[in-house]
Amino acid sequence: MIFQDWLLFILGIIFLIIASIKDLKTREISDWIPYSLIALGLTYKLFIALDFIKPSYFISNLFSFAIFVVLGYSLYYFKIFGGGDAKLLMAIGILIPSLSISEAFFNSLLFIAILFLCGAVWNLFASFKWKSIKKGRPFVPSFLFAFLICVCLWIKGITILTLFR
Fold first, then answer.
1. Count of CB atoms within 10 A of residue 93's CB?
2. Predicted structure pTM score
3. How many CB atoms are located within 10 Å of the residue 14 CB?
4. Is 72:57 a contact under the CB 8 Å cutoff?
5. Of the residues 32, 69, 127, 163, which has the maximum number of CB atoms within 10 A of its CB?
6. Residue 19, Cα to own-chain centre: how many angstroms?
7. Overall number of domains in the chain
């Protein structure tokens, strides 16, 4: 993780808070939220790669984005996520900090593991609050909790690689 990732972490948290509130109120996420987060993230990472770091920084971030695009489409295709959830998951993919392809892979893996744990806990809580699942349960708050946990871990320098050393 580099210092410049802080701005994206803050933007990601702000956008996830907005998406969580919208998801809790209406069970839908406006398209502008994930699309603008993707555009801001890609633009910011490109400028950082061109100004401060090697172009491989941008390529490794595109790799983590691609992982989340495949995951988002898969979860949407199998009707586990709605369209807004899948797009927001793709947008989070560009926020994953990485300086190399291997770091992108392992940081993505860490986020996905924490997301599924947070999703399980959130679904347990949501099943008591929202008994009917006709409209679906809001899932974006679990994205927010998982992102906050991962940001705290990344700030401390903890990744999957450091956990198994």
1. 26
2. 0.88
3. 11
4. no
5. 69
6. 12
7. 1
Distance of alpha carbon 104 from alpha carbon 93, whole angstroms: 10
Tell me the CATH number at 57: 1.20.120
Per-residue tokens: 85: 């959830």
Angle between helices 32-51 and 56-77 (to 10 degrees): 160
Tell me what percent of the residues of the chain surpass a pLDDT of 90: 47
Domain of residue 141, residue span:
5-163
User: Could you give the CA distance from residue 160 to residue 105 in angstroms, rounded to a whole number?
Assistant: 10
What would the two tokens of residue 56 be? 């491989």
What are the tokens at 97?
A: 């900090």
pLDDT tens by residue, 54-105: 788 899 999 999 999 999 999 999 988 889 999 999 999 999 988 888 888 9
